[in-house]
Amino acid sequence: MTKQFEIDEDFEWFLEKFEEPSEKNQAPVEIIKKFEGKLPTRLLEYWSEYGFSGFGEGLFWLTNPDDYDDTLDAWLGDTDIVEQDTYYVIARSAFGELFLWGEKFGHKYLIDPSHGWIIEKEGNAEDIAVGEENDAIQFFFSAKRPTSLDIDDTSGGLLFEKCKLRLSQLKYNEMYAFEPAFFLGGQPTIDNVSKVNIFAHLSVLASFGQKEILDQQGLIAKAYS
């Protein structure tokens, strides 16, 4: 008999902020089994219950890591990051930010493609080393805030709702893209946003070669530059 899913306090808090997905993209059983022992068991349980679906009306998505293999290679393949650990894309935002999880280091990197940044984070190596990877992944979700995944426009407002109203809600393989990207001089205005295929667009952005690896201090410096 299939084990009944029991929600934890962290994911319950996540759902209070993002709500349940309006549509569920079922996660295939063979994909769940493939990542046993590679990703936290609790994440696989989320997949089983919620699928690869969008929360917050498409602001934040659970992803099938297999779908992002080529994208991840395009962004990390020429860095030494791939020599440190095996990373998977476990989630993404409406604007194409990719949240990576490593087998040894957990959530060590975030890719911000519009800026061309690969952002290094503290990671979860200590938790994983002592078998507490499920606690780490639960915290990953509970720490998410809708405003931190949204983007400020030039007038000081937030763009996600404007994008959704003008361009309609996203599907699993779509994102809101800035054309041109920020690293090419683009500005965060609704007139510069298009709805595009996420895989094609992220590959194109990676091909420009404008990639920077930033730690938190480097990111702060960018904010004040």
Please explain how this structure is put together.
It comes from Pseudoalteromonas maricaloris. InterPro entries: GAD-rel, T6SS_Tdi1_C. This is DUF1851 domain-containing protein. By secondary structure, the chain is of the alpha+beta class. It has a domain at about 10-150 and about 210-225. The protein has eleven helices and nine strands. It has helices at about 10-20, 30-35, 40-50, 70-75, 80-85, 125-130, 135-140, 145-150, 160-165, 200-205, 215-225; strands spanning about 55, 60, 85-95, 100, 110, 115-120, 175-180, 195, 210-215. A seven-stranded mixed sheet has the order 1-2-3-4-5-6-9. Strand 5 (about 110) and strand 6 (about 115-120) form a beta hairpin. It is globular, with a radius of gyration of 17 Å. The termini are far apart.
- Spatial order of the strands forming the largest sheet: 1-2-3-4-5-6-9
Tertiary shape: globular
Q: How widely separated are the two ends?
A: 57 Å
Structural class category: alpha+beta
Please, how many helices?
Answer: 11
Summed over residues and divided by their number, the pLDDT gives a mean of 96
Percent of residues in beta strands: 15-25%
